Amino acid sequence: MTREEILAKAHTDYKNNDPIELEKRNTSITVGTLVGIILCMVLFVNELLISNQVDRGLWALVIAPAGA
C-alpha cells in the first residue's frame, strides 16, 4: 500500500469519529445555546422594562434548552 492509500483508508475510517471534530461540535453547540439563552433573556427584560408585561413566549424560549 502506498502512503496515499493508507491516508485515504484512515480518513474514511475516522471520518465521523474524529475526537477534535467531536469536541468542536460539542463546544459550538454549548456556545450557541448560551448565546441564544442570553439573547432571549435580554429581550425578555427589555420587554418587561418597556411595556411592564411578561412575554411568556420569550420565557419559554429561555427555559426550552434546559429540557432538551
Describe the structure.
It contains three helices and no strands. The radius of gyration is 21 Å and the shape is rod-shaped. It has 68 residues and is mostly helical. The chain has one domain (3-67). It has helices spanning 3-13, 19-51, 56-67.
Number of domains: 1
Mean pLDDT: 81
Coarse shape: rod-shaped
Order of helices and strands: HHH
Distance between the termini: 46 Å
Share of helix among residues?
A: over 70%
The biggest beta sheet reads:
none
Spans where pLDDT lies below 50 across 5 or more residues: none
Short description:
The chain has 68 residues and is mainly alpha-helical. It has three helices and no strands. The protein has one domain (3-67).
